[in-house]
């Protein structure tokens, strides 16, 4: 932070900034002392001006942003709160007035991005993984041309989807502007999700989003745009919780930024204990012995907020009678709810539905009257309701997720459930009633905690010190408060243009096709923004196919997340088929025939992708072009002369082939393989499909990998009998599976079979469970619950399902075909192809000898760890470096 740091609640990140890991017990109050000698009052002496920017004034982030602004005011700073959605409520509020871009094409693009993409494509493509908002950054506002922003010393961002486009942020940082960004969720470090729902791709790169069926690559392109715009050196990141600071520190986008922890503030005069609490409860119809719980969120339908989980816990306690028994005789349980959508109730649970509450005094009355505020979140950062409740002297019940355990301390400011599930919440409720119901001391310590850690003066001092550590020298004489207030009134009348020109990474294939398709001729006239200059190191252009059955942790391109730091990867994806080609699909097929591509390689989408790769290579020099699905791509670029590439230098061309030799021969033009600089195979068995004329030095065997951090051994759900699992459809020998199952039952084994496949096999015996569409987490649990994976194959080079089961420590029974033996390396039981009796015998042996089955599972896990994607990425990185050196 430029000097000594004392009492810092910061964890030392990649650039020496604290984010919480280095100090075992981190104080909540932060006071920074820098080389400039500025302490707690230095910022006020200089009368720095700061503008807090938030898309809207309502919602959790808007309320927190306004309070941060008030805290800055409390510290003597000249602060303003600017937003584009909401109503100006105070003299220092600045309601931004968007106006359409002057360029008709940009105005048309803004409409497409807002109406067709954000509220059209994204909504229809959402999966059922979560219902939390998912957003792109566009269109935003040209805030770098807004007078208020231009005049401020400090720009403090809050929730900025559709407000601050990445290009604007990039310009601010290039100009040396002092930018602070408080993380109210994870959106600044993801490809579009605000909460990842268990996905950790933000640590590397967002390639296959579990929340979105992303045929247009909106997510990876948005991720790439953010990374180019505000990864280090980027803005100074403020995390309200140490949990959020740790997420930022481990992210690929924000990990290089300065990160510090400053909690959100609260106005402890507006939110305070009610002196007439008993009378207020009586007015609500609540008796002195009744248990009044309160639950509220901006929208109670948002699943991550956990409202349904709390209702489940209350229903369980109602049905078993334990909560009623713990309360005084005649006492009732009541649930007060506020926010969008009402909460369900039933006979025996009184409900008070307050709806959407915008008046802080009303909200403080509700919270102050309650015995316990319930925050049963499945994911959360630093929710306002916890601060508001604690400030009113009302303890909280929280789940042990996110920053909640930093806000609520067991027995001091509330109770913490053992887990984020209904059973744990029920037990925590009973613990509260037994130990704390009516406990005035607990209410007092809850209030005292907030007074010490979150009051406006406390947080204002921390923000002032932080601002001073990054503020540039004043370029004008500091105005007084009266002049600043008059300027705010003037700024509040100024319009700001809509900015709808995404940076180059967002406009990569096939997002660019989507915008042209939705926007028509007007959008098509917009010139593409310039591509960033190449950076030192090896520049890789990678193209992979998007298969609908690949999850966030599966697919042959996963190694691209873990490449060495000296390799800059520009990753593109293309859906299978010819849907992107539209009416020209037949033309592309004809061109494919003319160029000698076999029918599989004539997909119109693939030809469009290759044309986009050519455009990218013509704009900025590339060292290596890698088609991760070689059966589908690189039939055009290797033919082209060097003069078509940037600098007249043709990049090295590499392609990976996945299909067994028998199929590969019919899926590629053997003559065209000779034009590649590197032919990458997954196993030695594929070599028979490669023409003898190709230089053996150009052939490389790099095995398929597995995400061994995600697919891990874990707890198994109880179940009867011996449980078999089969996964997938391509080249699976399901007749052998079903025949073996029949033999096992005839042998008297109590056995069951679960099949997970997007294309359910025909002829399944009665009692077979067939499923599809599982989340990655559900699939992992399916492996853990199985006693063995039974997956005979017709042919294979490598196999995701086998590797996933091995990584989960499960015994694998399969067939000795193709590269299966090479992949499993003795850590699986393999039998001849089509031999149902041999399959059954192996399964019977495992069922009869649990110790042998357990040993096989341990060996499988060891082998899977040897094939972790990080190791596979290292192999690829070495090959890329060699190919680039050969082109130098």
TrEMBL record:
InterPro entries per UniProt: Glyco_trans_4-like_N
A Gene Ontology molecular function term of the record: glycosyltransferase activity
Pfam families: Glyco_trans_1_4, Glyco_transf_4
Glycosyltransferase subfamily 4-like N-terminal domain sequence ranges: 145-268
SUPFAM superfamilies reported for this sequence: UDP-Glycosyltransferase/glycogen phosphorylase (SSF53756)
Gene3D superfamilies found in the cross-reference section: Glycogen Phosphorylase B
Coiled coil: none
Name listed for the protein in its UniProt record: Glycosyltransferase subfamily 4-like N-terminal domain-containing protein
Species assigned in the record: Neoroseomonas lacus
């Amino acid at each position: 932070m430029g000097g000594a740091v004392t009492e810092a609640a910061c964890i030392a990140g990649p650039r020496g900034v604290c984010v919480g890991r280095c100090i075992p017990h981190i104080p909540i109050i932060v006071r920074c002392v820098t080389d400039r000698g500025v302490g707690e009052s230095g910022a006020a002496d200089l009368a720095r001006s700061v503008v807090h920017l938030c898309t809207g004034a309502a919602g959790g982030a808007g309320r927190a942003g306004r309070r941060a602004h008030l805290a800055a005011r409390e510290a003597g700073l000249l602060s303003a709160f600017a937003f584009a959605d909401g109503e100006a409520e105070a003299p220092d509020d600045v309601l931004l007035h968007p106006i359409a871009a002057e360029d008709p094409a940009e105005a048309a693009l803004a409409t497409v991005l807002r109406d067709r993409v954000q509220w059209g494509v994204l909504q229809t493509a959402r999966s059922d993984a979560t219902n939390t908002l998912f957003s792109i950054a566009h269109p935003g506002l040209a805030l770098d041309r807004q007078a208020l922003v231009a005049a401020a010393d400090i720009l403090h961002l809050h929730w900025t989807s559709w407000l601050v486009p990445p290009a604007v942020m990039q310009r601010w940082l290039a100009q040396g502007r002092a930018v602070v960004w408080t993380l109210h969720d994870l959106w600044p470090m993801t490809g579009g999700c605000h909460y990842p729902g268990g996905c950790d791709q933000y640590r590397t790169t967002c390639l296959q989003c579990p929340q979105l069926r992303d045929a247009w690559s909106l997510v990876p392109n948005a991720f790439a745009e953010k990374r180019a715009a505000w990864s280090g050196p980027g803005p100074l990141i403020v995390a309200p919780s140490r949990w959020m600071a740790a997420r930022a520190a481990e992210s690929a986008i924000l990990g290089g930024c300065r990160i510090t922890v400053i909690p959100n503030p609260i106005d402890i005069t507006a939110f305070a204990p009610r002196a007439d609490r008993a009378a207020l409860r009586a007015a609500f119809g609540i008796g002195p012995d009744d248990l009044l719980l309160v639950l509220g969120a901006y929208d109670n339908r948002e699943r991550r907020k956990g409202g349904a989980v709390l209702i489940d816990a209350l229903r369980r306690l109602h049905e078993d009678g334990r909560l009623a028994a713990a309360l005084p005789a005649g006492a009732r349980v009541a649930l007060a709810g506020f926010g969008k959508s009402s909460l369900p109730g039933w006979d025996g649970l009184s409900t008070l539905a307050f709806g959407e509450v915008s008046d802080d005094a009303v909200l403080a009355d509700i919270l102050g009257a309650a015995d316990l505020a319930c925050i049963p979140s499945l994911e959360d950062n630093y929710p306002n309701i916890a601060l508001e409740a604690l400030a009113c002297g009302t303890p909280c019940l929280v789940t042990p997720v996110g920053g909640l355990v930093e806000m609520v301390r067991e027995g001091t400011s509330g109770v913490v459930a053992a887990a984020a599930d209904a059973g744990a919440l029920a037990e925590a409720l009973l613990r509260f009633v037994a130990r704390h119901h009516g406990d005035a001391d607990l209410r007092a310590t809850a209030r005292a905690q907030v007074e010490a850690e979150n009051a406006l003066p406390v947080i204002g001092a921390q923000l002032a010190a932080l601002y001073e550590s990054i503020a540039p020298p004043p370029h004008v004489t500091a105005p007084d408060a009266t002049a600043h207030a008059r300027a705010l009134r003037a700024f509040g009348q100024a319009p700001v243009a809509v900015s709808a020109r995404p940076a180059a990474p967002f406009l990569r294939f096939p997002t660019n096709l989507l915008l042209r398709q939705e926007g028509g001729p007007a959008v098509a006239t917009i010139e593409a923004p310039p591509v960033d200059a190449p950076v030192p190191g090896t520049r890789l252009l990678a193209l992979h196919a998007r298969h609908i059955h690949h999850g966030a942790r599966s697919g042959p391109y996963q190694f691209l997340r873990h490449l060495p730091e000296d390799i800059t990867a520009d990753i593109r994806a293309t859906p299978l088929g010819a849907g992107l080609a539209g009416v020209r699909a037949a033309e592309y097929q004809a061109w494919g025939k003319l160029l000698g591509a076999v029918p599989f390689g004539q997909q119109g989408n693939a030809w469009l992708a290759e044309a986009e790769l050519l455009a990218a290579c013509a704009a900025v020099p590339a060292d290596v072009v890698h088609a991760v699905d070689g059966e589908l791509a690189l039939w055009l670029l290797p033919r082209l002369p060097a003069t078509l590439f940037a600098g007249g230098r043709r990049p090295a061309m590499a392609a990976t082939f996945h299909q067994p030799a028998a199929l590969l021969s019919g899926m590629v033009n053997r003559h065209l393989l000779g034009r590649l600089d590197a032919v990458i195979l997954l196993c030695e068995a594929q070599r028979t499909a490669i023409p003898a004329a190709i230089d053996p030095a150009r052939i490389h065997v790099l095995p398929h990998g597995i995400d061994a951090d995600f697919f891990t051994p874990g707890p198994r759900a109880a179940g009867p009998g011996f449980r078999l699992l089969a996964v997938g459809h391509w080249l699976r020998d399901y007749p052998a599976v079903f025949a073996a199952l029949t033999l096992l039952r005839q042998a008297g084994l109590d056995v069951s079979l679960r099949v997970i496949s997007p294309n359910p096999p025909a002829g399944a015996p009665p009692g077979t469970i067939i499923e599809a569409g599982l989340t990655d987490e559900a699939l992992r649990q399916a492996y853990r619950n199985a006693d063995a994976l039974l997956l005979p194959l017709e042919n294979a080079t490598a196999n995701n399902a086998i590797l996933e089961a091995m990584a989960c420590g499960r015994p694998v029974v399969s067939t000795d075909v193709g590269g299966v033996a090479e992949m499993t390396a003795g850590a699986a039981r393999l039998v001849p192809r089509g031999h149902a009796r041999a399959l059954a015998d192996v399964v019977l042996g495992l069922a009869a000898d649990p110790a042998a089955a357990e040993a096989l599972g341990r060996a499988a896990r060891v082998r899977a760890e040897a094939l972790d994607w990080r190791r596979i990425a290292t192999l690829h990185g070495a090959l890329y470096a060699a190919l680039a050196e050969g082109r130098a």
